[in-house]
Amino acid sequence: GSQIHKAFKIYILTLNLPIRPTLREQGAQCGLYDPSIEIDGTESGVIRLCGNSHTRYLLETCSNSIDIRYNNMIINTATSKYKGFEIYLESVQHDKCRPTPPPAALTPLFNITSQVACGLTSGRETVNFACELGYGLVFLQSYHFVTKRPNQCDVTQYTCFYPGEQPQAQCSGQQSCLYTHPIPLFSPSNACQNSQADSTQFYYQCLPMRPSTEYPTVKLCANPETSNEMGFIETPNYPNTYQGGRQQCSITIRIPNNNIGRGYSIYLYIIELSLRDTSTINPSST
User: Fold this and answer.
1) What is the pLDDT of residue 7?
2) How many domains does the chain have?
3) What is the rounded (10 degree) CA torsion for 193, 199, 204, 210?
4) Which residue among 12, 121, 163, 178 is the one 20 to 30 A from 71 at the CA level?
5) Which of 5, 9, 25, 29 is nearest to 17 (CA)?
């Protein structure tokens, strides 16, 4: 018979680490000197996590051992308090490991791109994709499918589907990512009669992760409006917590002045949203 390979499923229960003013969120592109967690021993190499994250499934590896390192870099956090992190590991077994993943495909900037990963189709289990340096992966939609012929990798021939958190839970904000479709992938309660999803289709873009002269920053409560074609909108003193300022602020986004003969749409992306987080504010405040 085939050799049994021991492996791990990894979940994030809590991730709440300090971040520097130059660091964007979504666990994105952590630098060597940022407070972070490193998970080594996965097929995709070292995975580095920083900043904040909600409770989520992260990934499944086919390695029989992993190393988890905590880089406790000292940075000035003023009066803010942080919880740290808590990770849950679950030991699993595989009849065989996945084949060597394909090289990363570079995605054109801002293009909305679709990819499909299929857990029971040979050669289609893994998707390896990447952005240019300084840009990160942002996910728009993701769906898990139960298909009629799981070995065909055809999501148009589905019997049921439901929204999913993968691969964005693993890959959001990173410059490159390797996502492997797990089998079995059980559906959440009351979805698809608890059938196992065999395929995942997702849509994503490569967007800038840091402000620059090309992608400037507009401060909420300081700028009443903006007509920048691209850029960031932030609360005052971001990424530090916003305390003691105006209670109500608004900003108007207008189309650029050079709009003659051109049509515009406004796309808004939430990079980080942390409102009244008791781990980063004074518990006595109201």
Assistant:
1) 79
2) 3
3) 90
4) 178
5) 25
Same domain, 117 and 87: no
Residue 189 structure tokens: 């309660």
Give the DSSP letter of residue 187.
P
Q: What is the pLDDT of residue 266?
A: 86
Q: Which two tokens stand for residue 275?
A: 């409102």
* DSSP tally for the chain: helices H, then strands E: 1, 20
- DSSP readout, 71-127? E------TT----EEEEEEEEEEESSPPPPPPPPEEPPTT--EEEEEETTSTT-SEE
Which domain does 234 fall in, by range? 211-269
Q: What is the pLDDT of residue 204?
A: 95
Say whether pLDDT at 58 is over 50.
yes
Each residue's pLDDT tens digit, 174-218: 888 888 887 766 777 677 887 888 999 999 999 998 888 999 999
Structural domain includes residue 241: yes
- Is residue 279 assigned to a domain? no
Helix, strand, or coil here: 14? strand
pLDDT tens per residue, range 210-245? 888 999 999 988 889 998 889 999 888 887 777 666
Q: Which long-range CB contacts under 8 A does 228-234 form with residues at least 24 apart? A: 228/256, 229/256, 232/271
CATH number of the domain bearing residue 32: 2.60.120
Q: Is residue 126 part of a domain?
A: yes
Burial class (CB in 10 A: 0-12, 13-18, 19+), 128: middle
- Residue 113 sits in the same domain as residue 197: yes
CA 57 – CA 17 distance, rounded (Å): 18
| pTM attached to this predicted model | 0.67
Under 8 Å between Cβ of 118 and 150: yes
Task: For residue range 7-33, list pLDDT tens digits in order.
Answer: 788 888 888 887 765 444 444 456 677
